[in-house]
Amino acid sequence: MLNFMENEHEFLFVTAEEEGVRIDKLLVSKFPYYSRTYFQHLLDIGCVLLNGEPVKKRVVPEEGDEIEVCFQAMPEASLEPESIPLEILYEDEAILAINKPAGMVVHPAPGHWSGTFVNALLAHCKEKIPGTDPMRPGIVHRLDKDTTGVLLAAKTLPAHQKLIEMFSTQKMEKLYLAICQGKPTNRIIEMPIGRHPVHRKEMTVLPDGREAITEIQVAACNDRASLVLAKPKTGRTHQIRVHLKHIGCPIIGDPLYGKGELHPRPLLHAYRLSFLHPINGMPIRLVAPIPEDMKEWLRKLCGPSLCMNTL
Description:
Blueprint (H helix, E strand, L loop, with lengths): L5 E8 L9 H8 L5 H9 L3 E3 L2 E2 L11 E7 L15 E4 L3 E6 L16 H8 L23 E7 L2 H12 L4 E9 L5 E4 L2 E3 L7 E3 L7 E9 L3 E8 L6 H8 L21 E9 L6 E5 L4 H11 L9
Parallel strand pairs: 7-14
Antiparallel strand pairs: 1-4, 2-3, 2-4, 5-6, 6-7, 8-13, 8-14, 9-12, 10-11, 12-13, 14-15
Helix pairs in contact: 1-2
């Protein structure tokens, strides 16, 4: 049996049509894949906030009120190993790296309790995966659901602790490929990022946000789009997506920060990860093959002789 753990936050604003509805009923209408009992449980343990304050289930919100829901794993929630194919880039006794496909969620969260990388990892490693968070064993960093590319995990506790430290102290050299609208200039973007004050699912550039630094270089372009090499120096949520939007060159296919109708997913790929092995200190350089949907766009930018070997 697991203890409660924080998973994901959702924010919503009460509309005129929703005014007068009890908060537990309102949440069920907004998130129909959860029961009213589940939301009453969240209200009881203080994980639903109305305008920043915990409330009881009988409260009736008014138009314009902000509701924040901190989804929690129920006590009976458990992780099940699932035999999900993994494209393994590197593996030894301490670490595992895969080429994550688009659509794969990294760890269980509301709406995605199965079919995640963690479920696959448990099956691959015979459930012997370390970690202080019972719902995220082995996880040391994340990629968004529709971002592809290098995803690293730990198989031992010493490796897990060391990798967490390496990511937090920027000792990982990361290179992403992004196909964005327009043509940005080669530059280092230093713009702090925080949660959007109105659109609470989004991050945005804010004067009082957390430090965020991304180096970008244009590798190819035409009159509509560019292939950008992005090197994030910090690890903020949606960092590359937010920075490219802020300079007027959102990632193609990004439904949150750009025009999602141009492609079914954001064209963002974690292409390369370089670091020192957490146990033996040997240099590791992991490269994830570019997915086919991005290759099609790259051929338009680079021509049929596309070659990424020089990156």
